[in-house]
Design brief:
Blueprint: H1 3-19, H2 25-32, H3 51-67, E1 84-87, H4 91-115, H5 127-134, H6 137-144, H7 149-155, E2 160-164, E3 171-175, H8 177-185, E4 188-196, E5 201-206, E6 222-224, H9 230-239, E7 247-249, E8 273-275, H10 276-282, H11 285-295, H12 297-307, E9 325-327, H13 328-339, E10 343-344, E11 350-354, E12 360-363, E13 370-371, H14 376-392, H15 397-400, E14 409-414, E15 420-427, E16 430-438, H16 448-451, H17 453-456, H18 458-470, H19 487-492, E17 498-499, H20 503-523, H21 528-550
Antiparallel strand pairs: 1-11, 2-3, 4-5, 4-16, 6-9, 7-8, 8-17, 10-13, 11-12, 14-15, 15-16
Helix pairs in contact: 1-2, 4-18, 9-11, 9-12, 9-14, 10-14, 20-21
Length: about 550
């Protein structure tokens, strides 16, 4: 902090070493002529590899210190007693996660700023800015001190020295508090979590883009889940006897019992029929709602709660589209339960605490796993469907762009107006999820082509796994395999994900053709034999279709 004084003090020490014969006079002069090399790192809990995670642990560790005594009978001090705290966080995983968030969010912020260069994201909703001002520490302190609204607004227009976060480095500027609020309101943020599904061990935790400026932890924050909720709908359907081999119409429906609500698809296409796998892979809203209503909303909510969703869920058809607000942490638990075949393991992070001499003070047990009521085979079917999302669906860029090889599954999610972008990705040994959005939902892209989860959140997960797989120490992760459904089920699942029409419609078209030709036979005797020959061929087609249908099922 004071290089000149430090240099003088160093030379005093060297003179003392000469005086005490530790150095010769000539050696002393040589050392004193050298520049002062400062290798100083200030200890700060705002920085480091996992500041959000440290903040998460702090209350639990403070309680531990309060209830545990040193040899002299005093309780431990978390900050001064040199405790050695071992956690499940993997340093490499955490570092890769931080890098992935930083690389993607810096790039995405440039796109977002360009997208809104001619306007403010809150232009059509000024209440967003007004609310942001009222939530600042400056406003609350001035209001508490009895300042009038006019005085507060005037203070927000006066320039002051401050430091702003930017992706090009911290910027020391003279600006108004109002402009500072606007600066941070335009920033996109993110949350990232990686968890080992078999044990529940947390491996990486990134609560935001920079803890110094953004204290809010987005791993534990509740935001609308979007289509990342759809797997729970299909799982509930499987659990309640709906067949994964059936096809569902992609048609607009109105639900009179729910205020004539009608779901829409993002691509505005309402033709044909989808299998469950096809609808999940392409994130078809109409089919997800249809499946939810056939299953029952209450049953779907029960399934979601059982696998790890803790928040209250709305009893409304739009539940299928992810209107419920849930946390990234809950989503990681739920996907881990599915990957475990219905065995739920809640996350943990503390391993042990030792004193400053390395003497173990306490070790912590892993939380016990417990089996839910879910059928293991249905979980395997769902994981198989989630593989289709990244192999041929909305999550395909994780393979094409980030070169993620081996068994991999996941689901993208985008909420109304692109306020939230999600991606949950998993290989057999690791579940990783990311959320991206503004600090408030009103700050978002205007176009789904920019704001969809596949463009905002998926790249973070893709970069993370790419870095992980490139490290020889963790390359084995890419060679693991998902547990497949039973062979006969796997064979039955091998059906087209989409059909323009179903077999019964094909039969109807053929029958209509036969009878229309029958009228012609009465009028054109010369063509009777030819028409009879065509009829026989068509009848054979009908029987071939029936055999195709009934050969698959009882």
């Amino acid at each position: 902090l004071n290089p000149k004084l430090s240099l003088e003090r160093r030379n005093v020490v060297i003179n003392q070493m000469v005086k005490q014969d530790y150095l010769s006079k000539a050696e002393g002069e040589v050392f004193k002529s050298k520049p002062l090399g400062v290798r100083y790192r200030r200890i700060s809990y705002n920085e480091g590899p996992a500041p959000y995670f440290l903040e998460l642990m702090k209350p639990e560790l403070l309680r531990w210190c309060l209830n545990h005594k040193k040899e002299n009978g005093d309780p431990y001090n978390l900050y001064t007693d040199g405790l050695k705290i071992s956690t499940t966080i993997n340093y490499d995983y955490q570092n890769y996660a931080q890098e992935a968030v930083r690389e993607q969010m810096e790039s995405l912020q440039e796109v977002f700023d360009e997208h809104w260069k001619d306007s403010d994201p809150w232009k059509n909703n000024p209440a967003i800015l007004k609310r942001a001002i009222r939530q600042t520490e400056r406003y609350t302190k001035m209001a508490a001190a009895g300042k009038s609204e006019a005085e507060i607004q005037e203070a927000f227009r006066k320039k002051t020295e401050t430091t702003l976060f930017t992706w090009k480095g911290d910027k020391h500027v003279q600006t108004t508090p109002l402009d500072s609020v606007k600066h941070y309101l335009r920033m996109l943020n993110a949350g990232f979590l990686a968890i080992e599904p078999s044990t529940g061990a947390l491996k990486a935790w990134v609560g935001g883009i920079d803890f110094r400026f953004f204290k809010y932890d987005h791993v534990n924050a509740a935001r609308q889940a979007g289509s990342t909720f759809k797997p729970f709908v299909y799982l509930a359907a499987l659990e309640n006897g709906i067949s994964p081999y059936d096809y569902f119409p992609n048609e607009k429906k109105v639900y009179p019992d729910y205020q004539n609500w009608s779901p829409r698809n993002s691509h505005d296409d309402y033709e044909g029929y989808y299998s469950m796998e096809g609808a999940l892979a392409q994130s078809i809203n109409t089919v997800a709602v249809d499946v939810l209503m056939r299953t029952g909303i209450d049953r779907t909510i029960e399934t979601a709660h059982e696998i790890g969703i803790e928040h209250d869920l709305p009893v409304f058809p739009s539940l299928a589209l992810g209107v419920a607000s849930v946390s990234l942490r809950e989503m990681a638990i739920a996907y881990s339960t599915i990957l475990n075949g219905g065995v739920r393991v809640d996350p943990y992070y503390l391993v042990s605490i030792s004193d400053n001499k390395g003497v173990l003070q306490e070790s912590f047990d892993k939380p016990a796993a417990y089996r839910t009521s879910l059928d293991e085979e249905n979980c395997k079917i769902l994981v198989h469907m989630l593989e289709a999302v990244v192999d041929s669906g909305t999550g395909g860029s994780i393979r094409s762009r980030y070169n993620i090889t081996g068994d991999f599954a996941g689901k993208t999610g985008t909420t109304q107006d692109q306020s939230d972008g999600w991606f949950i990705g998993m290989n057999p040994g690791l579940v990783a999820g990311c959320w991206v959005g503004g600090e408030v939902p009103g700050i978002h892209f205007r176009s789904i082509s920019y704001g969809q989860g596949a463009r905002t959140a998926l790249p973070v997960v893709g970069r993370f796994f790419g870095k992980l797989y490139s490290n020889p120490r963790y390359r084995d992760l890419s060679y693991q395999y998902f547990q497949e459904p039973a062979p006969e089920i796997l064979a039955e699942l091998d059906i087209p994900p989409y059909r323009e029409m179903l077999e019964r419609e094909q039969i109807g078209e053929i029958i209509k053709g036969i009878f229309s030709r029958g009228d012609n036979k009465r009028d054109e005797n010369l063509k009777v034999r030819k028409k009879e020959s065509e009829d026989k061929k068509d009848k054979k087609k009908i029987w071939d279709v029936f055999k195709d249908i009934f050969g698959k099922k009882e």
